[in-house]
Each structure stands twice: as structure tokens, then as C-alpha cells.
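Morning. Coffee machine broken again, so started the prediction first thing and wrote up yesterday's gels while waiting. Chain of 156 residues, entered below exactly as on the submission form.
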Amino acid sequence: MTIEEYQQEVERIRPGLCRTAIRYLGEADGEDAVEVTLVRLWQMADDLRAPINALAQTLLRNHCIDVLRRRHITVALDGHDMAVDDEQDQRVETMMGLIKQLPPMQQTVLQLRHINGMEMAQVAEITGMNEPAVRKCLSRARQALRTMMLRKMKEA
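Came back before lunch.
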């Protein structure tokens, strides 16, 4: 694709990319996401042929998802130093105590997925399990935590 063809395609698809990015991330971050996408497309310009809208939308969507995932805040609960009220602090301690009662593999999977914020594939790789087994283990851990928490709430 020549420079002129690239510029024409960008002028044609930019408004749609902006609308998509703003829906995902808001105005300021959306504009940045569009620029990142256009830079990636420019880096691939030699291999591209018009129309590039579908590729641009896919690259943009994936970038927006990455940004949203990075915004996901995970907190290390072992020695957390958050400024929280006593009630929330007590709930965290209770939950950590319940997690410690789970079987070791369920503890590991739960911690990797929810506390460390890892993806299922990463958890599977670390634990040596396949993804369906990780999902099942995680489901069992959540169910056990739910049961223990309900039992604890009835006692209180």
C-alpha cells in the first residue's frame, strides 16, 4: 500500500475508529487508542491492501481490551496496606482465613486468578493443568468459599 492509499484509507475509517474507541474507553483514552492503532497499521502498510477497516477495527478493539484489563486493579491481600475501614478490613481477613481452609490446589488457582489477576491460560500453564480443569477447580473453590461464608454468616 502506498502512502497516498494509506492516507486515504485512514481518512475514510478514522471517524468509525474514533466512535468505537470512545465507546470502549472514553474520549481522551479513545483518541490515544486510535493513534496507537493507526501507528500499528502504518507499520504493516507494506503488506496491506485496501480496505483495511476490518483489520483496523480488530486491532483497535484488542488494544482497548488491553487498556481495560490494565485498568483492572488487583490487590495483594496478604500484607495489604490499603486505607480501608475496619468493617472492610474484617471482611478481607475473614475471606483470607476461609481461603486458607481450601485444598492447596484450589487456593493456588483462586489466588492466581482473582488476587494476581491472571488469565485462565496463564493459570493453567503455571499449575500444569489444562484450562477446563482450571475452570472446574476455580468453580469448586468459589462454591466452597460461598458455602463457608454462608455458614459463617448464619453463626454470626
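The chain has seven helices and no strands. Going to sketch it on the whiteboard this afternoon.
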